[in-house]
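User: Could you walk me through two proteins back to back? I'd like the raw sequence and the structure tokens for each, with a short line separating them so I can tell where one ends and the next begins.

Assistant: Of course. Protein one, sequence then structure:
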Amino acid sequence: MHKVESCLTAVLLDTGTTNYLEGTSTVTVPVTTKEQTTESAARPRLGAQLLRRKPIAQMVNEAGSGEGGTPLVRSFGVLQLTMISVGATLGTGILVILGESVPLAGPAIWISFVIAGLAALLSAVSYAEMAGLVPVAGSSYSYAYATMGEGMAWICGWCLVLEYAVSVAAVAVGAGQYVNETLAVFGQVLPDAMSQPPGDGGLVNIPAVVIVLLAMVLLVRGARESAWINTAIVVIKVGILVFFCAVAFTAFNAGNFEPLLPMGAAGVSAAASTVFFSYIGFDAASTAGEEARNPKRDLPRAIMLSMVIVTSIYVLVAVAAVGARPWGWFDGTEAALVQILEETTQQPWIALVFAAGAVLAIASIVLTVLYGQTRILLSMSRDGMVPRIFGRVSRRTGTPVAGTIIVGIAVAITAGLVPLGALADATSIGTLFAFALVNVAVIYLRQNRPDLERTFRVPLYPLTPVLGTLMCAFLMANLGADTWIVFGAWMLVGTAIYLGYGRRNSRVAALSEQDYRDLTTRAASPELVKADLS
């Protein structure tokens, strides 16, 4: 074993080893620690550093702990993982942005959900394969690091920061109107100054801020407690959406679907691009790889099961909503489902129950997506890409407390001050880019590492990942110029942060060229490991 470890002793001052099944043989590789960032090794040139990949075996060995070696708690089974996925997904496009998306697509909004769901499903099967191969917290950031190198991993990780943090804010923004719908039953209402962000007639969206901060506090207390609370809320959320469909279908009017495409195919495509961020839930599940009891088996199952549940309910609710009200009615309506229930039943208590359930549904999304954001930053911190504070795990709670508080406060400020429309589109473009990279990662590993043990395999390979990549590119192209400008500015900021911090603190880049070659060669070659161990 000492032969395998010796190639890294020059730069790894505090090293452990772990066995990892790679392909058909057990590979023993070092566990990288923070001392890997020592300056004793000359860093490679920028071009070479951007292409450096992190071996999958090394990622798995490092998984489960943060700065200082404090472990995360492995407490999630397939039920909790599925509920994290459903909790992060179900409700976003229906409860929050129907007023934004129906005016784009008209009665064909259900087709937009099908298109977005198909694009998400094509990527979801790629996520399922990669989650079984790389069961760590970094999600697509880690997948990109293992296949395309540090440069693309940073771009993907920076997109995930946009995707997760902004999507939490986008969902929380919609809480203000549902809180008002709840209070209206008692003859009360929050003034716009307290329930709307600047630009929408208010000063700060207080309900959005409160929901994010409550989710932050719950996550700080512990992942297991958060998961069980989320599971209970998801059950309530599914129940209120099924209840809405039952009521809405009593007022169903088939004439509301004529004409089906008043804005043409372009409107359907534009709406699909907008609602695509409603499908990021399975990505949140993949960030739980280090807290799952059996991630190789349960992560793929949870991802696929959640996609079936979410897409079915989205389409059903969209059809019920448009069947109950003409598509023009939705323009500018923020709490469309509550209003449909109230107008259909003429019973205020029904609207009260649904509005209260909708607030819980929004809280569930905020909780699970905020969870995913903190785990991605933990993984990036472990690699030296972001400051170490995001990787510190509390010995008492087994959670990254400091990182959760920092992210929670930043997201709360964003949710309180930024309008919904800008947040939803910015989230979509970051999500689509990350999904496209995961599809490419599957193709890369199928070509270069066919020996790896896969607990789930993408069907119809290579057609499925190729179509997934093209579908993501198509939806990105349908987003507006303003969204692309925001995305470009975000990438410029990310580039500056990488050059100023990530490049100098990268732990993979801290390895000398010879050490890096030895590590990657031995991790990829069962024959060399057998020779060293003999």
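----
Protein two, same layout:
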Amino acid sequence: MLGRLTWQAIPWSEPIPLVAAGVVGLMLAGVIVWVFLKGYVPYLWKEWITSVDHKRIGVMYCLLALVMLLRGFSDAVMMRSQQALAFHGQGYLPPDHYDQVFSAHGTIMIFFVAMPFVTGLMNFVVPLQLGVRDVAFPTLNSVSFWLTAAAALLVNISLVVGEFARTGWLPYPPLSELQYSPDVGVDYYLWAIQISGAGTIMSGVNLVTTILKMRAPGMSYWRMPVFCWTALASNLLIVASFPILTAVTAMLLLDRYLDFHFFTNEMGGNPMMFVNLIWTWGHPEVYIHILPAFGIFSEVIATFSGKPLFGYRSMVMATMAICLLSFMVWLHHFFTMGAGADVNGFFGIMTMIIAVPTGVKVYNWLFTMYGGRVRFTVPMLWSIGFMVTFIVGGMTGVLMAVPPADFVLHNSLFLVAHFHNVIIGGVLFGAFAGYNYWFPKAFGFRLDETWGKRAFWLWLVGFYMAFMPLYVLGLLGMTRRMQHFDRPEWYPWVLVAAAGAGLITLGIGAQIIQFVVSIRRRAALQDTTGDPWDGRTLEWATASPPPAFNFAVMPNVKGEEPYWGMKSKARELAHLLTGEPTYEAISVPRNTATGVVTAFFAVFLGFAMIWRIYWLAGLGAVGIYAAFVAFAWRDRSEQEISAREVARLDRENRLARSDALAEGMPQ
């Protein structure tokens, strides 16, 4: 009846996961009770849970990423503290639990922090920058988000029901095959990735279609903001690479469930095929993360330098070059596995070549700042911190692209330091820059600058303390994923790294305080103009937060920086703000529960397949199918916002901008 699920699946003998799950459960129950008591359920259901507005979905993606950041970082703190206490001892985490912790940390941070964060920012910003009213497929957008959230829930269920994979964040066979991992840990991983991967592919198709087919009048390719170009490149990579991930995880599922032999050591299987396929997806995945971050830095640096971005066309060409070259470097992840000198040499050279367009970007950002009036706001600090940190990480990557050096450094903490150097210093710093930069556009008030700067410095100093020692430890021969050690020369560096993790913890605490303080001071931090940073792109031409339809009248784009062009001429701007266009009724997509209902049944489907409860899996599959059939048979797919309501909202926005102009908006 319940397949492999028994009471023994709950780790009664391990207090850490049970206490952690209890605390999280109590917090979640408290939030639910508070929402019910305050009467917020109808509002949340109508305005957020069933919304297909790209802005609301983008915000929910970012919220999911921030929540999962806390979950994933708790694993990082456990790893660092375990190693700090495991010198000539076993520490407090048994080997079995420690293996699950580092596997969950990597999986959560890549799939459920980095991916949702950049996807959320792209969802929120790209249609606004393109001057359009929504993405191409609004309901598909909702389904994409809720499938990602469902997969994140499955990963967290493994904390208390069963166990997570012990294979690392990529489940290499033969370790991940049923013979060596007979428990459900690998199954939790595979089903979570299948479900979230389906959502990611939908999101990629959606954003590629939006960018290629739904730009405002006059918005040619060479007039698109750089963030839109990086979003296009990132989502092209998603469309091309995520089907590979879906296929390779499906093949491993077939190995485990139906005794296929794709990746076994017998019956014609080949584990190296898994390694090739997973990294054919895995290296483009790095650029799926980092390219949108590059776009964020381009927008932030241009805005806070008060200058157009230097070398716009070279920046676009560098972006698309990275998009292409990212598929030609995957083998550098396994130089030591016997491919041969010629093959290793080719992929080493390609890895060095892909560093060139990245270098072009760095010089363009520096030249943009040169001669500008730089304002050291929180988004700008994250951008400057990124440039310094990412260059260090990039240089260590070029070093590891040399096969003989990689033979020495492979599987050491040097690799861990390099990877975190580019992912934290690039992707996460970029996400934080975008979070601070576009927060007032999403919510109508800025984030507190004082606590934002404190968070930045704690993160930056903590990052260097946490990861620079890992370079030294790698050179000293310490391999990754060690549960305990007895080499005295390693111990001081391990302690410094643990102290750095503590500083990052304080940085996260400062970000939480920043959020709370900003809410309390939202009246003083209110953005009445829609343009708090004196921005240069079209999202700043709308109110903060923008109405459901984004633009009362579709913009007519002229030049590479249409909004900055309007602002640069005060008289024309004043005329545009006071002169009224002809308003018309606007149709927007109706809300739908398709996304959340699909995710609800996807959780049951995934959980049932993990535990081999096949009747429940069948019900989950039928529920997903029924949700889409019900959606397809809807009588009305759109609702109309009257011309009068459009006019009222637009007049309020224009009045606020007129007042700001009269007071002397900075130019």
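Confidence is low (pLDDT under 50) at residues 573-577.

Let me know if you want the two compared in more detail.
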